[in-house]
Amino acid sequence: MKSLHLKYVAPNLLLTISLISFSACVPQITDVPKDSHISLNLSQSQESINAHWWEDFHNPALLYLLEHAREFNTQNKLAKTHIEMARNDLKIARAKLYPNMNLSIDPAYNQTILHPLYALTQGNVDFSYHLDFFGKYRYAKQSKHYALQASIAQSYATQLSVDMLVAKTYITLLGAYARLELLQTTLEARQKELNIMQDRNNMGYISTYDVKQAVIAYESVQTQIADTKLSIATSKNALEYLTGVDVDSEEFIVLQGFSVKYQEDMAQNTTSIESQNASLASATDVFITLQAPKLPDSISSKLLHNRPDVLYAEFMLASSSAYLQKARADFLPDFNIGLNLGAIGYANFTQFLTLGGVTGSVLTPLFKGRELEGAFGIANAQRDEAAYIYRDVVIRAYREARDAYMSVSYLNLERNSTKKQQEAAKEALAHARSRYDTGYSSYLEVVDAQRSLLEIETNLITLKTLYLESMFTLYGALGGGMQYQAEDFKQE
User: Fold this and answer.
1) Does the pTM exceed 0.90?
2) Which of 80, 185, 244, 461 has its CA 20 to 30 A from that of 412?
3) Domains located in the chain, CATH noted
């Protein structure tokens, strides 16, 4: 009896060994390219950024816009759909690790010339399971798991990007409001001067040339006002697109702390200077008092690694590495076991016949026209690509953080210097007026002094806008203080 068993078992054993031998030429996985490695001299400081950084600016309108953007913005919604797709991809990959069970029931009624009508019902339960000895399905699931984490990190990156864009757009709007107030005040002064110049010309005290210079100065301010109003309109439209908030609504006007209501007739270009100046009385105050909080003094590895785009690149590298392992396992055999249990019922289930069987199979690739080699080569190239992308993301993150630090620093120096220019320009204007009133110079000298002062004051507002925008850029470059949910990045 023993020899009989050996007679049947030996060929099957030899067949199995021969099948496995065909899988001997499995490619080896190489290390990631050495030139994809990166080393940065970063601080080991444990400083962190407030996760609710926008609250440090103490501006209710900014907080309101950011909260609405996170719920309304289309890019944030798209990022959530990508997470759902990745999560369901993981479910499919995870299902490969579990047994499959199917139930089939086939009722039938048969009748022939020789046999009367009779009932025949057959039921089967099929059970199959992949024995993942070489980790093919395990690595596939691991790859999808990291891809899901990458999608979550990407959603954080999208949210941070939208937050930065909303904040910068709102700062641009505030700066435009402050610039409009300055120009309206200047226009009122130029209008009064123009009236005085026309009266003096009518009395013969000054030439028509001085009047024309006053007209040029007045119209120059009008041109800048039109350009500023256009900037305000485009900024409002951008905020509405990003957040869904109507910035002209009563609720938002109360939050921002000032009201901007002016009537504009493009055909006649008529403007009520007094009403505009009154409505913008606090616009500059809100803009000037908007101060950025203190940030970390150095770029630490903790802050840089906290950037969601760095996390995304890291997870994509892990995902591609796991998929490369899966591509290698494709060269190796699949071991499967199956179990079938069934029953056949006759004559209204008064008679039964039970069936059953156990099967096992080994499936190994013999010849696929180098398909597996090509798939492995693609997976290897994708892993190397992910390594280079990770390197590039880290270098870019470091450069963006350094650029933002330098931008904040130098813009602050430029603002201080421009403030000194402003004081000097005010004194120069007063001196020019005095010289003109005493007849020592022409009105052109006064116009030049006015133009210089207006340019400097406008530049101060622009520099304040750029300074605050650079602060937002620096927040983004340091990861924005993003706080990740532990369950988002849990390991399996």
Assistant:
1) no
2) 185
3) 43-97+140-330+393-489 (1.20.1600.10)
Helix 136-202 and helix 443-477, axial crossing angle in degrees, nearest 10: 170
Residue with structure tokens 């110079």?
441
- Residue 243 contacts residue 73 (beta carbons within 8 Å): yes
Residue with tokens 């013999």: 366
Residue-wise DSSP of 5-62: HHHHHHHHHHHHHHHHHTT--PPPPPPPPGGG------B-------TTGGGGGT-HHH
Vertex 60: Cα angle to 58 and 61 (nearest 5): 125
d(CA 346, CA 364): 42
Q: How far apart are CA 492 and CA 391, in angstroms?
A: 26
- For 450-483, write each residue's pLDDT tens digit: 888 888 888 898 999 999 888 888 888 888 776 6
Which phi-psi region, left, alpha or beta, contains residue 470 (left: φ > 0; alpha: ψ -120 to 50)?
A: alpha
| Per-residue pLDDT reduced to its tens digit, 2-18 | 444 555 555 555 555 55
Q: Which two tokens stand for residue 296?
A: 């970390």
d(CA 272, CA 274): 6
